[in-house]
Amino acid sequence: MERAIQTTHQKALDINLDLAKYGTFAEIGAGQEVVRWFFQVGGAAGTVAKSMSAYDMTVSDAIYGKAQRYVCRERLEKMLDHEYELNIERLKAKRGATTQFFAFANTVAAKGYKGNSECHGWMGIRFQPIPQAPPSQIILHVRMWDKDNLSQQQALGIVGVNLIYAAFYYTMSPDTILESLLDSLSIRRTEVDMIEFSGPIFDGVDHRLLSLKLVQIGLTNAAMFSPDGKVLQPSEVLYKKPIILERGSFRPVSHTNIDILHSAHQQFITDLQAHNQEQELVLMEITMKNLMSTSNNGSIDYQDFLARADMLASVGKTVLISNYFEYFRLAGYLRRFTKEPIGITLGAKSLNELFDEKYYENLDGGILESFGRLFKNDIKVFVYPYLDDEGKLVTAASFEAPAGVQDLYNHLLKKGCIVGIEKYNPDYLKIFSRNLLKDIQSGKDGWEESVPPEVANIIKERGYLGYRINE
Fold first, then answer.
1. Are 408 and 420 in contact (CB under 8 A)?
2. Residue 242 near residue 342, CB atoms below 8 Å
3. Helix (H) or strand (E) holding 24
4. pLDDT for 355-372, tens place per residue?
5. Among 81, 180, 201, 77, which Cα is nearest to 129's?
6. What percent of the chain clears pLDDT 90, i.e. is strictly above it?
7. DSSP string spanning 213-241?
8. Which domains does the chain carry?
9. Count of Cβ atoms closer than 10 Å to residue 414 Cβ
């Protein structure tokens, strides 16, 4: 049944009138925008035990302990720890048997009058799903895109009410919690690029799947998780890091996938070491377009996605899920967080798509504009060779671009924007993921030799990609 979307006013009022829900609001940075809703709609005495803002840094440190940054996850969690425990300590004896205690907190940097600093924040709620139950928790990271401070504050207040309402009334459906976070808003105003559920009520939640759904339902354009399945906040992971990234379907993860990244990585770090730059970040990226292309009806097969995630985890890779099909949009996203060098790897066969002008018809400057965006500010594309249908080796140097753009390609190659991968394993050029997938599904012998041992084991143990167990 389709969910009825309530207004922010109605959500806040419903909570106020539910006398079982009672707790604290602690907000730093953008004013008391969330608790303001509960005061405005009336009946706040039924919900608000305390409202506060430790805005001064010294005061904040005195209450929550020192922190290197004030808008960060660490600060948010200290706020939740402190305020929730105070609620239990002060109120449990009097009303613990009938009350679902909660602590809501946020720490936010909204648009200031002096400059154009990053407008973002951390927000969370720790709550009891029923009276006397151990607490569970939801935390998230938001970005505010409105151009003025007042609009950002208003948007923040709406997200906060949505989060509190979802925690209490949509607890049994993490999908619904996600869908409701931007009720009365849009991604043009607010983006949620990370969310994490914890506590007994959320046992069994797979955060890799939640990361995918953040992108799928439009709460953000990119999400990230680590090899152990932990959700990552992209801006914190990407911040000021050199980045080397491989885009692929990874269906399955083959020796070729690993060799592409390893070979490009070696050339990439040689340049970094020459300039004494810091440790690089290595990413495997899957686009939403790729995930949808493997389904007959354009939907996403979640089990197929989790199989790919498990295979990438088995070889220790951090995964980025993005809605950036065009490479220049991916580059623009990464450039939001770092000024360090960025390397993007692809096979020479994929250069045909990169230089296909039909993908840039929506740009006023067409393909020239797209490459202007892609290659500015120290971004390089590392090209892995392939064997064509006649068995001829095609490299970055021998690649023939589509008609009309060969001169452009030659210019980018000469300038060093496009770089041929030099050291690679020629045996891996014969591995094609599409053929490999057919071999796995048909039960043909020998496919294991084309993938890392860890990947072969996990495919066979769990029956991934259509592999028939015990056959």
1. no
2. yes
3. strand 21-28
4. 988 889 889 999 999 999
5. 201
6. 80
7. HHHHTTS-SEEEE-TTS-EE-HHHHHTT-
8. 8-205 (3.90.950.20), 236-466 (3.40.50.620)
9. 9
Average pLDDT, the chain: 92
State how far the alpha carbon of 24 is from the alpha carbons of 113, 130, 298, in Å.
29, 17, 44
User: Omega into 252 within 30° of 0, i.e. cis?
Assistant: yes
- Residue 105, beta-bridge partner list: 26, 124
Number of Cβ atoms within 10 Å of the Cβ of 68 = 7
Asked if 161 and 12 count as a contact pair (C-beta separation under 8 A), the reply is yes
Question: Is 90 exceeded by the pLDDT of residue 403?
Answer: no
CA nearest 110: which of 76, 67, 142, 64?
A: 142
Tell me the one-letter amino acid at 61: D
> In this structure, are residues 96 and 142 in contact, taking their beta carbons and an 8 Å threshold?
no
DSSP letter, residue 389: T
For the chain, the first-to-last Cα distance in angstroms comes to 41
With H, G, I as helix, E, B as strand and everything else as coil, classify residue 280: coil
Interatomic CA distance for residues 171 and 175, integer angstroms: 10
pLDDT digits (tens, 9 = 90+) for 411-460: 999 999 999 999 999 999 999 999 999 999 999 999 999 999 999 999 99
Residue 108 φ then ψ, to 5°: -135, 140
Amino acid identity for residue 154 in this structure: Q
Residue 140 pairs with which residues in a beta bridge?
123, 195
Of the candidates 339, 340, 345, which has an alpha carbon nearest to the alpha carbon of residue 327? Answer: 345
Give me the residues paired with residue 141 across strands. 122, 194
128 within 8 A of 101, measured Cβ to Cβ:
yes
- Chain position carrying tokens 């940075």: 29
